Design the sequence.
């Protein structure tokens, strides 16, 4: 099986909710020198990795010292979800369903933003000023449901701050703190949009067998110590699941996803995202996390 993927101008993917149990459909088939240690996990035969390995090296070399890499390191790119749940969430299955369906009810007057801009402050030094989302924009990013099922009620909102992991390490950022009925601590929604991604220095791969290389969907989580990464990789109805290989260099980590173990029988065209965790030899730090297939940074749903 072969695939040609095209990436639109700017290459950004809009935030796709991750509020289900981490099994998500692929985003409509994804509108779509430096040497280091490399390894593959998930069942690929060694001979299957040569094409992916060559592509991973090409991506790492293209980004090394590039203008895109310099622009990326100066921007604000979250690696954590910009929505942080209240402590103990959720109290009931109904609340879980409401959040997954983005069903909220507003039982308060949302305040105006006290300023037009907010500041990202990195724990390792440095800061960046960006436009501030007002409370209504932040609330609208949460409450995109509207069915007749269970809902969560917002009874208050104020501007505060929170911390999250970014491509430049931990940062403190402004956040809207929404009081949710029945919860003692607020739901936090970061009040800044991420910086726009730079144009990548390499084009996406084309006509590559899916058992050699395949696009990743998104980043789920970076561990607190930076030594493991969880991503969503895709699988089909007639395979044994995805594998994800890793190439580490001094300034990047390149992930190579593929589909393994084709099975017999009747196959459907459905593609399903499943989580895969890879372990790094050293913490991710401020190295750029890249997808070998697309040649682009791997981000969270809101990471830009």
Sequence:
């Amino acid at each position: 099986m072969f695939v040609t993927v095209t990436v639109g101008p700017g290459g950004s993917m809009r935030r796709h909710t991750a509020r289900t149990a981490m099994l998500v459909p692929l985003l409509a088939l994804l509108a779509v020198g430096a040497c280091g240690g490399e390894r593959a996990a998930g069942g690929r035969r060694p001979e299957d990795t040569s094409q992916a390995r060559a592509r991973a090296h090409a991506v790492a070399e293209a980004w090394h010292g590039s203008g895109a890499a310099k622009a990326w390191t100066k921007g604000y790119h979250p690696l954590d979800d910009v929505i942080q749940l209240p402590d103990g969430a959720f109290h009931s299955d109904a609340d879980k369903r409401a959040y997954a369906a983005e069903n909220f009810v507003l039982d308060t007057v949302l305040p105006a933003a006290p300023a037009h801009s907010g500041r990202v402050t990195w724990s390792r030094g440095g800061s960046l000023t960006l436009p501030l989302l007002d409370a209504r924009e932040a609330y609208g990013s949460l409450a995109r449901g509207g069915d007749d099922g269970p809902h969560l009620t917002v009874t208050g909102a104020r501007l505060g701050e929170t911390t999250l992991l970014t491509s430049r390490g931990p940062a403190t950022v402004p956040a809207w703190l929404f009081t949710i009925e029945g919860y003692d601590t607020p739901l936090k929604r970061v009040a800044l949009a991420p910086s726009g991604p730079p144009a990548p220095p390499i084009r996406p791969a084309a006509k590559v067998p899916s058992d050699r290389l395949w696009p990743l969907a998104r980043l789920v989580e970076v561990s607190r110590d930076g030594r493991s990464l969880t991503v969503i990789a895709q699988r089909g109805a007639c395979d044994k699941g995805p594998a994800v290989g890793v190439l580490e260099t001094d300034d990047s980590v390149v992930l190579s996803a593929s589909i393994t173990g084709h099975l017999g029988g009747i196959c459907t065209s459905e593609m399903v995202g499943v989580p895969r965790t890879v372990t790094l030899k050293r913490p991710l730090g401020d190295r750029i996390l890249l997808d070998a297939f697309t040649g682009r940074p791997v981000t969270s749903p809101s990471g830009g």
Notes: The two ends are 30 Å apart (CA to CA).
